[in-house]
Design a protein that fits this description.
The protein is mainly alpha-helical. Helix content is 77%, strand content 0%. The protein has 7 helices and no strands. Helix 2 runs antiparallel to helix 7 and helix 3 runs antiparallel to helix 4. The termini are far apart. It binds zinc ion. The site of zinc ion has 4 residues, from helix 6 and helix 7.
């Protein structure tokens, strides 16, 4: 008897989760169908709290941007060990902050954000490699390009409305 009850219970749960799945699926298809027929929606805009979150990440990123001059100085001095240390130390959280920033952008702004973040890191990795090879020309070229891409990235911050 207790065995039968437990089988029933299991079947009960099983069919409940099956029917939950079916209704989720139905809901999803309804949603997709309604999206297909919906008139073109207003373009999405930034809400004040998303702007605030973006400004907070941008503040951290700007803080690292402000220290890029130190990296330039180390390259000028051909202080290769500290060049590499600087990229993995003070700039160590840059990638994470840029990723978090990107995730809060509107969908249409995310591809350029991802592309610029990739570029910045391509240049920083090139500087690291140049440091290993004591390659001054490659280091300075990638330093300039990293700055350009980082500034373009910071330009993605939506202009806050007056506040
Ligand atoms: Zn670039």
């Amino acid at each position: 008897m207790s065995k039968m009850q437990s089988i029933n219970a299991r079947f009960g749960i099983g069919s409940r989760s099956r029917s939950l799945f079916v209704s989720l699926l139905a809901g999803m298809m309804l949603f997709l169908a309604s999206c297909g027929n919906a008139p073109p929606a207003e373009p999405p805009t930034y809400t004040p709290d998303v702007v605030q979150r973006l400004e907070s990440y941008a503040g951290d990123i700007q803080g690292m941007r402000d220290r890029m001059g130190e990296l330039e100085q180390l390259i000028q001095e051909r202080d290769w060990v500290y060049v590499d240390n600087f990229i993995h130390g003070p700039l160590g959280t840059l990638r994470q902050d840029m990723t978090l920033f990107n995730r809060n952008l509107l969908p249409q702004d995310q591809p350029p954000g991802r592309e610029l973040a990739r570029e910045v890191f391509r240049h920083l990795e090139a500087i690291s490699l140049a440091a290993e090879n004591s390659d001054y020309a490659t280091a300075t070229k990638n330093y300039r390009e990293a700055l350009t891409d980082l500034d373009a990235f910071l330009d993605l911050l939506p202009k806050s409305s007056g506040s």
